[in-house]
Automatic annotation (TrEMBL):
UniProt-recorded name of the protein: HAD-IA family hydrolase
InterPro entries (UniProt xref): HAD-like_sf, HAD-SF_hydro_IA, HAD_2, HAD_sf, PGP-like_dom2
Molecular function (Gene Ontology), one example: hydrolase activity
NCBIfam families: HAD-SF-IA-v1 (TIGR01549), HAD-SF-IA-v3 (TIGR01509)
Entry keyword annotation includes tRNA processing: no
Keywords recorded for this protein, A-Z: Hydrolase
Pfam families attached to this UniProt entry: HAD_2
Species annotation: Paenibacillus ehimensis
Length: 221
């Protein structure tokens, strides 16, 4: 029986990811440097080591990488000032609470970043457990974040359903033994997600209750 929902944050609750891609693409494009969607998408939900290495290599002799980061961060901050929750997120959280489910969050970002948005949208108290990169040695696709989240929620992994937007996040959830339904954003929609338990274009597609009932009728993950 599913007893808890565990949400990813970036790209799922708030689409910070598509904004980051747009910002870096704009800044790098101004220096004649391409920024492939597939490179960025492959790092979504995890750390950005590959992106950093690519920018460092491509920017050499053209521009200062620290200036690229600064310009992209400024553009991103401007976009985040008016960002909204992804469609259906608030409704899914409310539905989970009505169904008597525990609600947790597992994010590869740092706690201050995550909580700043949750506080802004009045959602901070909606999560019984919040696990971020500050709590683990390894971020997604390592399963550690999800293992710590379900442990803190006091349930078994197969009693939790994760919602993810990235391949790295989905891999982490499945490796930890959770059910996983993906809700890709514009940057991640073309990724190969491997073995997951469902896919939505948006959380407005189907009621949470229907998804849970369908999964509970299926074999354990």
């Amino acid at each position: 029986m599913i007893k808890a929902i565990v949400f990813d944050f970036d790209g799922l609750i708030v689409d910070t990811e598509s904004a980051w891609f747009d910002c870096y693409a704009e800044v790098l494009g101004g220096h004649g440097i391409p920024f492939p969607t597939e490179l960025f998408a492959a790092c979504v939900g995890s750390h950005g080591g590959q992106i950093e290495a690519y920018i460092r290599q491509m920017a050499e002799g053209r521009t200062d990488i620290s200036e690229v980061r600064k310009a992209a961060a400024q553009l991103h901050a401007e976009k985040m000032a008016t960002v909204t929750l992804r469609d259906g997120v608030a409704e899914y959280i409310e539905a989970a609470q009505r169904l008597g489910l525990k609600v947790g969050l597992a994010s590869s970002s740092d706690r201050a970043w995550v909580e700043s948005f949750l506080r802004r949208f009045g959602l901070l108290d909606s999560f019984e457990v919040i696990k971020t990169k500050d709590d683990v040695a390894n971020v997604k696709p390592d399963p550690e974040l999800y293992l710590k989240a379900v442990q803190a929620l006091g349930i078994e992994a197969h009693e939790a359903l994760a919602f993810e937007d990235s391949a790295n996040g989905a891999a982490a959830a499945k490796a930890a033994g959770l059910w996983c339904v993906i809700v890709p954003n514009p940057v991640t929609e073309g990724l190969a997600f491997g073995s997951v338990d469902g896919r939505l274009r948006s959380m407005t597609d189907r009621p949470l209750k229907d998804i849970i009932e369908e999964l509970q009728a299926a074999p354990l993950p």
